Amino acid sequence: TGIRVVNNFTLEITIDAPKSYFLAKLTYPTAYVVDQREVGDSTCFRGAEWTRNPNGTGPFKLEEWELGQRIVLTPNDDTHLEPKPSLAKVTYLLAGGSALVMYENDEIDLTGVGINDIERIRDPNEPLNAEFSEGPSLDTFYIGLNTQEPPFDDPKVRQAFAMAIDKDVLAEVVLKDLVVPAEGVLPPGMPGFNEDLEGLPFDPERARELLEEAGGVDSLGEISLLSSGRGANVGPTVEAVAAMWEQNLGVSVDLPQLQFGQFLQDLDEGNFQAFSLGWIADYVDPQNFLDIKFHSRSDYNQTMYSNPEVDALLEEARTEQDPARRLELYQQAEEIIVQDAPWVPLFHSKSNALTKPYVQDYFIAPFVIPNLRYVSIAR
């Protein structure tokens, strides 16, 4: 394995096996080629000054970056991509303030809509509704459970806690239809997404029966549901999940918060019972969810889930060359994972945007990274 520079415009990459998802991985920014003259002997941990003035091959280049205030992009005349971008400048405003008010005052051309304004904007009688659009996001938000420590080392306990959450209420009432309830791990739009997958249902009675079979609610003690953040407010999702567990199972739930860095460290070290987190696709392939998050030897398997049958399916899928068979293997693995319940998949989010009528060819990307290459202004 390795990388060989063939010429100024060509890299040759040799991998350890013919993996179908490899090309998809190359679309993720961490796989982008960087200018060696700028990077020098820097690493991702040391000497990162080059990131302040990146030199890439995409349709835009960084013109200005005022930390916490704005990022300005201008066309990259040297890009190899055709057609060249038609936008003369793109400005991202990073500072505080109401983006919706700025949009209504014609100060900005495009913005998302948050939970406090979504009902108004979705109203067909609202003038801005005609400029509103929604699309799927390739993500899954979930509760992760420590499968190696009591009480969640018992599959029955994990299933009970999963079946005590009303995902429809969470999506429709708590989060005001900004999300769609999740049956499984893979989000809609991801290859291998199984429309027929039946997740663990909302069934408080069966959940309580499972807890009794596992030793009873009194044997659990207080449950800790960890999240990242600071301050008194843990957010509507965590609050709602905790309330459902308390109401439907009769357990007591503690809601500690940690700053994000410490939060991730605690997950990596297994210092948790349950945690709230989301996974956003790095690239469009089910391997990015199922193999990375659930293979027993994956560094990102924070629930420490281990099932030899799942491992075997995921390993076979890595090098399976028949696309249909490959997706079938992932679906088989997902069905087992959902029943084993190392995750309680809660919902998949929706991306949305208000876009001025004169903004042409903007589409909602299912990723964090927008694609503005084809966007134009017609006025």
CATH architecture of the largest domain: Roll
What is the domain total for the residues? 2
* Ends apart, CA distance between termini: 52 Å
What are the secondary-structure elements, in order, as H or E?
A: EEHHEEEHEHEEHHEHEHEEHEHHHEEE
Q: Sheet bearing the most strands, described?
A: 9 strands, mixed
Which regions have little confidence, pLDDT < 50, spanning 5+ residues? none
CATH topology of the largest domain: Dipeptide-binding Protein, domain 3
- Estimate the strand proportion: 15-25%
Number of E strands: 16
Radius of gyration: 23 Å
**How many distinct helices?**
12
- Overall shape: globular
CATH class of the largest domain: Alpha Beta
Fraction of residues in H or I helices: 25-40%
Task: Give the tags.
2 domains, 12 helices, three-stranded antiparallel beta sheet, 379 residues, single chain, nine-stranded mixed beta sheet, alpha+beta
Walk me through what this model shows:
The mean pLDDT is 94. This protein has 2 domains: 1-56, no CATH class; 139-350, Dipeptide-binding Protein, domain 3. Helix 5 packs antiparallel against helix 7 (204-213) and helix 10 runs antiparallel to helix 11. It is α+β, with helices and mostly antiparallel strands. It is built from 12 helices and 16 strands. The chain is globular and about 65 Å long. The strands form 4 sheets. Strands 6, 7, 8, 9, 10, 11, 12, 13 and 14 form a 9-stranded mixed β-sheet that branches.
Provide a short characterization of the protein structure.
By secondary structure, this protein is an alpha+beta fold. The chain contains twelve helices and 16 strands.
